[in-house]
Amino acid sequence: MRVAAACFLAAALTATAVPGAELWIGGATTSITPDKPVPLDGHRGLRMSNKVESPVTATALALESREGEKVLDQAILVSCDLVAIRDGITEKLREKVKPRLPDFDVNKLVFSATHTHNAPVTLEGRYTLPESGDFMRPSEFVEFFAEQVAGAVAESWQKRRVGKAGWGQGQAVVAQNRRAVYADGSAAMYGATNTEKFRAIEGYEDHNLEVLFFWDEKDRLIATAINVACPSQEAEGGLAIHADFWHPVRETLRERYGKDLLVLGWPGAGGDQTSRPMYGKAADARMRKLRGLTRLEEVARRIVNGWEEAYEAARKDIRGDAVLEHRVQQIALPHRKVTEAEAAEARTQAAKFADVPAQRWNFRWHQGVVDRYEAQQAGTEGDYNMELHALRLGDVAIATNPFELYTDYGVQIKARSPAVQTFVIQLTCGSGGYLASERAVRGGGYGAVIQSSRVGPEGGQVLVNRSLEAIGELWKK
């Protein structure tokens, strides 16, 4: 029995013992920082930028698997310093890329957002904007952004050369569940914990740091992708354009490993997470003061330390023949049902904001529930359709989704995946809102109420199962 178990374990740990192929790798980064003030995304009220604290960028990583002259599969993965990939953005980017890369399947272009709350708005009508002034409207920024990103995508593809890949896991305490639970069973995002009514932090935290590494033929590190199960909201607020903790992470890694190192920031399942502590704040502040660090620098320090932990081991297992497979699916998820009581309350709240231009965000937030309820009653709502990307790179699986996905779902996918290491990337190729866990919906609060989510726990389980089915297909060979 022990011999059989050992053989099984050896087989599981050498999942890439399938015929490999030559891996071609290319990359490019570009600024998406506007040269004028812009409305900033991520808050309920309008914020117009007044400075650039750190540049916002987009980084493209091109991958192609070949056997001789035969192309086996392709992918271009793009990480963008935005709050989300709003509806229509993916299609617009693909339209711009298609004529530039006629030999590439644009359906295998994958766009994800880091979820910084200090990036430009990309959706017209989200806020009531000034009628005049020297600023860039969302539609203008989208045109600028799309042109910059399309150029970086084309450049990454043109630069691809034979290379090597590796993967590793480190640990970094970045994600901290941001939902406080109280004695009456209710929950609140960023709720107070220094009260006698406080009972628990609601959910799990994933501190694993999933990392991909890419080298050229001479074993020089050229790119890395870092999957953190937390949105980048440390610098949230204010009027500055800001890439959040990804900026000091990139700068530190480039200082240590080469000024041209490409760094992709991938947010893992972290719809219920924050990098800011919910308790122990005084101790946290004291330790930062002793280290001479801001909170932004402290988070970056943890990520870089975890990255280096993974790199130290991963560079002992550099693969030149890692299999690349990429599958794209359109999947349908059931909408979260709006109750009659929820619709009535939303209608009352929407009426309060309907004629107040400064409350445009709040009006849309509530009115959207009313519209959904009416479509539901009329039988015209249908399903929520999303694009799912499942990739295999050697022993690694990657699964994407467009949501602010609660960590419970990401943990399910990782735990049940047949891969040695699994990356879950949220906020990809769409913007589906929060997808809360069953226990979060019971507790209520922002991020779990009907206004916050189009898809509920039932759809969340469908997403988990379909993601695992897609990953499983890549491990059948």
How many individual helices?
A: 11
In this structure, how is the largest beta sheet organized?
Answer: 8 strands, mixed
| C-alpha geometry | globular
| Separation of the first and last Cα atoms | 26 Å
The pLDDT mean sits at 95
Strand content: 25-35%
Rg from alpha-carbon coordinates = 22 Å
List unreliable stretches of 5+ residues: 1-18
Number of strands: 21
Which structural class is indicated by helix and strand composition? alpha/beta
Q: Biggest sheet: strands side by side, in what order?
A: 5-4-3-1-6-11-12-14
Please estimate the helix content. Answer: 25-40%
Task: Offer a few descriptive terms.
477 residues; alpha/beta; 8-stranded mixed sheet; 4-stranded mixed sheet; globular; disordered N terminus
How would you characterize the overall build of this protein?
With 477 residues, this protein is an alpha/beta fold. The chain is built from 11 helices and 21 strands. The strands form 6 sheets. The protein has an 8-stranded mixed sheet. A 4-stranded mixed sheet has the order 16-17-18-20, covered by helices on one side. Strand 11 and strand 12 (221-228) form a beta hairpin. The longest helix is centred in the first third of the chain and has 21 residues, at 138-158. It is globular and about 65 Å long.
Summarize the structure.
This protein has 477 residues and is α/β, with parallel strands linked by helices. The chain is 32% helix and 26% strand. Helix 4 packs across helix 6 and helix 9 (407-416) runs parallel beside helix 11 (457-474).
